[in-house]
């Protein structure tokens, strides 16, 4: 059973940075696409970034140029480096493994102006 555990969230001022981590249990991490999504209050969940086993990366339009997704297959971990944070980045961020349709519990990121 795959489980995803996020860490690294918190509160930061506008313009600041945070780094999220997601550790995955279970086999074949290196063979799977991993992704980060977010959901702000009253809004639909949206894709933040995804990375496939070959390092191909896709970013949501709202975060391009500010966020960076990466992975460490040895540690079964995917990261989201968030720079130049804005108040509109405030949301619960979820780690996601699409093939198994597994979601982490989510972690709060709050950006104050």
Structure report:
The protein is globular and about 40 Å long. The chain has no helices and 11 strands. The strands form 2 sheets. Strands 2, 4, 5, 6, 9, 10 and 11 form a 7-stranded mixed beta sheet that branches. A 4-stranded antiparallel beta sheet has the order 1-3-8-7, with no helix packed on it. The protein starts with a strand and ends with a strand. The model has no long low-confidence stretch (mean pLDDT 97). It is mostly beta strands and 113 residues long. The relative contact order is 0.32. It is 0% helix and 50% strand.
* Number of extended strands: 11
SSE order: EEEEEEEEEEE
Largest sheet data: 7 strands, mixed
**What structural class do the secondary elements suggest?**
mainly beta
Overall outline: globular
The low-confidence runs, each spanning 5 or more residues with pLDDT under 50, are: none
Report the sheet-strand fraction.
over 45%
End-to-end Cα distance: 40 Å
Question: How would you sum up this structure in a few lines?
Answer:
This protein is mostly beta strands and 113 residues long.
Main features:
mainly beta, 4-stranded antiparallel β-sheet, 113 residues, globular, 7-stranded mixed β-sheet
